[in-house]
Design the sequence.
C-alpha cells in the first residue's frame, strides 16, 4: 500500500504501519484454508467455528455470531449440511427451535485447518528471535483485548 507520507496524526501513521505489517499474518492465516476440501468461504469458516464454540446454537444465534442476516445463514447452513459438515437437530428447550451441531467431518475439517495454520505460524515464528516472538505475542494479546473492548463499546451504542 502506497502512503502519501506522514500525517499530522501519529496514531494514524501507526495504524497504517500495523495494517501493512498484519498483511503477512493474514496471508499466513488464510493460506491454510487454500488446500482445504471442501473449500470454505470466510463466512462458512466463521459459522463452523461458532457452532463448535456453541453446540446447538440456533440460526438466529449463529446469525448474530457471524454478523449476517438469518436467511443468509440458513442458506449457508444448507450448504454446510449438504457438504456433511453440519447437521440440524431439534432444539433442547423448544421443539420448534432447531439447533446446529458439527458432524464428525466438520470437527475433523476444523482440526485439520487449525493444524495447518499452527504449522505455518510455527514455521514463520521459528525464523524470528525468541525475544521478538515474545514481543509479538504481547502486542497481539494487547491488540486482541483492545479489539474486544471496542466491540463491547459498539454493541452498547
Sequence:
Amino acid at each position: 500500500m502506497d502512503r502519501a507520507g506522514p500525517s499530522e496524526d501519529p496514531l494514524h501513521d501507526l495504524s497504517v504501519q500495523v495494517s501493512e505489517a498484519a498483511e503477512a499474518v493474514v496471508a499466513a492465516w488464510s493460506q491454510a484454508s487454500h488446500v482445504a476440501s471442501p473449500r470454505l468461504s470466510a463466512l462458512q469458516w466463521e459459522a463452523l467455528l461458532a457452532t463448535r464454540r456453541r453446540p446447538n446454537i440456533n440460526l438466529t444465534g449463529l446469525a448474530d455470531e457471524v454478523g449476517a442476516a438469518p436467511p443468509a445463514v440458513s442458506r449457508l447452513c444448507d450448504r454446510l449440511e449438504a457438504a456433511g459438515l453440519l447437521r440440524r437437530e431439534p432444539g433442547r428447550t423448544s421443539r420448534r427451535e432447531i439447533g446446529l451441531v458439527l458432524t464428525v467431518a466438520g470437527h475433523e475439517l476444523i482440526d485439520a485447518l487449525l493444524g495447518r495454520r499452527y504449522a505455518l505460524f510455527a514455521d514463520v515464528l521459528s525464523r524470528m528471535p525468541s525475544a521478538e516472538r515474545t514481543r509479538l505475542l504481547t502486542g497481539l494479546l494487547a491488540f486482541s483485548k483492545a479489539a474486544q473492548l471496542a466491540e463491547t463499546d459498539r454493541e452498547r451504542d
The beta strands are 57-58, 86-90, 98-102. The mean pLDDT is 88.
